[in-house]
Amino acid sequence: MANPVIAPRAYTPGVIWLTGLSGAGKSTLSSALAQALGADGYGPVTLLDGEEVRRRLPHRYGHSLEDRAQVARHVIDLAEAELTAGNIVIVASISHQLWMRQTARTRLGRFLEVYLDCPAQTCAARDVKGHYARAYRGEEACFIGVTHDYECSEKPDLTLSTGTQSIASCQAELRARARDFLNNP
């Protein structure tokens, strides 16, 4: 049997911004959401993963507070360009300072902030690259959740407890909320 053709949906493009500590599940959930929305007939969908954007930029930014701020500005600029082109934009970015997310919300207009709530200890246990271990040993000058705090928004549009909820549960909740966001301008 042939695969059914999914008819494009009528929707209003917007930005779905996943934020939280390193290891909270941003990349996993954002890529799953991009695939799910495509399968549901939404699109085009652009996924901007903060670390991927950092690697593609012509200037090599580190992880200092100043460099993180510059990368955040670039991510906002890219999201704005994609949104202006009529695309759904999914951003996966630590964006640990409140001003970063507030600036994005103000500039981008249609904005859904999704906070992935996961304790640093749980994120550290998931860290296969050893970033948290280096930060705890004092080998990282700027590591959010260890050397610098993550500034929580007072009321994100959606909070997923990725430290306690299953991945499947988080994916389902995010997909439902994203569809509602896109369908209701």
Question: Overview of this structure, please?
Answer:
It is a single chain. The protein has helices at residues 26-39, 50-56, 65-84, 98-108, 120-126, 131-136, 167-183; strands at 15-20, 45-49, 88-92, 111-116, 158-160. It has 185 residues and is of the alpha/beta class. It has one domain: Rossmann fold, CATH 3.40.50. A 5-stranded parallel β-sheet has the order 2-3-1-4-5, sandwiched between helices. α1 (26-39) packs across α7 and α3 packs parallel to α4 (98-108). The longest helix has 20 residues, at 65-84. The chain starts with 14 loop residues before the first strand and ends with a helix.
Secondary-structure map:
Elements: E1 15-20, H1 26-39, E2 45-49, H2 50-56, H3 65-84, E3 88-92, H4 98-108, E4 111-116, H5 120-126, H6 131-136, E5 158-160, H7 167-183
Parallel strand pairs: 1-3, 1-4, 2-3, 4-5
CATH architecture grouping: 3-Layer(aba) Sandwich
Distance between the termini: 37 Å
Please identify the structural class as seen in this structure: alpha/beta
CATH class: Alpha Beta
User: What is the strand tally?
Assistant: 5
Protein name: Adenylylsulfate kinase
GO molecular function, one term: sulfate adenylyltransferase (ATP) activity
Keywords: Kinase, Transferase
Domain APS kinase: 14-160
